[in-house]
Amino acid sequence: xxxxxxxxxxxxxxxxxxxxxxxxxxxxxxxxxxxxxxxxxxxxxxxxxxxxxxxxxxxxxxxxxxxxxxxxxxxxxxxxxxxxxxxxxxxxxxxxxxxxxxxxxxxxxxxxxxxxxxxxxxxxxxxxxxxxxxxxxxxxxxxxxxxxxxxxxxxxxxxxxxxxxxxxxxxxxxxxxxxxxxxxxxxxxxxxxxxxxxxxxxxxxxxxxxxxxxxxxxxxxxxxxxxxxxxxxxxxxxxxxxxxxxxxxxxxxxxxxxxxxxxxxxxxxxxxxxxxxxxxxxxxxxxxxxxxxxxxxxxxxxxxxxxxxxxxxxxxxxxxxxxxxxxxxxxxxxxxxxxxxxxxxxxxxxxxxxxxxxxxxxxxxxxxxxxxx
Length: 373
Prior knowledge:
Elements: E1 2-4, E2 17-24, E3 32-38, E4 54-55, E5 60-63, E6 79-82, H1 92-95, E7 122-125, E8 131-134, E9 154-156, H2 163-166, H3 172-183, E10 191-195, H4 199-210, E11 215-219, H5 226-231, E12 236-238, H6 247-255, E13 261-264, H7 269-277, E14 285-288, E15 310-313, H8 321-333, H9 341-344, E16 345-350, H10 354-362, E17 368-372
Parallel strand pairs: 1-5, 1-17, 10-11, 10-13, 11-12, 13-14, 14-15, 16-17
Antiparallel strand pairs: 2-3, 2-4, 3-7, 5-6, 6-9, 7-8
Helix pairs in contact: 3-4
């Protein structure tokens, strides 16, 4: 899901804000819509355990309400896209053209506090009447009417860009399109296979289509996704349950030996195996995008890499968020890059119906549901 919100643009500088947020009190529990208090930003703001209660969410767009001491590149009223993979602009990682990671603000699913003081900016009154801290998530915590970000995790964008579409750049579209453009550098006339046709997989398809790939093969166990895939430029579809043989064999038959690029977007190590062996020996590249919760290791033998195939991971589409996303937004606004944002937004709902939005996502009936604050 992606949230889209606005603010008063600076009228609460230095003051706490009370607002509605969807609070997660424990793993697997429904989110609870309740009032939280959000402390003002500390210096340079706009632990290693799973902590609750927590405010989840990592795709959004909004307007800066206020900034903390030391923030120079953002001001109240700026339109911004939060990013979970921050960019401080000063560390060795940020200065390197070989990575989009940041030494301090890189993505970290276990991080639950702010960098400046290891504290939280959210609090809530629990059922016992006690005020307790509410922890942060992925540098963003966007399932709230107001949130506090490190300045390194807020990207200033063109104020004319529609926030209800730009929220998709917080993760899904940036990750998939960037994987095709930046990580794989898909070339015109090449062949591509995408394993998993959720929002990220379809965004890979968008990126490959824009780059002029001649054949884009979508693989998913849910054939209902094929119609949306066709809309995103995918040319061929394979349902593993219906093809009667290993998927990589089907792909090799379709492409005279294998695709030039494959993208694993499912988070399944067996699928990762199929994605890898579906590429052409000598030059095939597999990009791993899926989140893999299993403790199982990668199902590859080292000698298989001597066939010339390569495999790599990708974070946030290898975009440097603060440096590169503003240009992408401008290119989309000017028509130089034509990304089908509307095709990814399958539902829109009020913020209060967030649990219903999650249900649609889990059942495969939704790509992205924009929650209106």
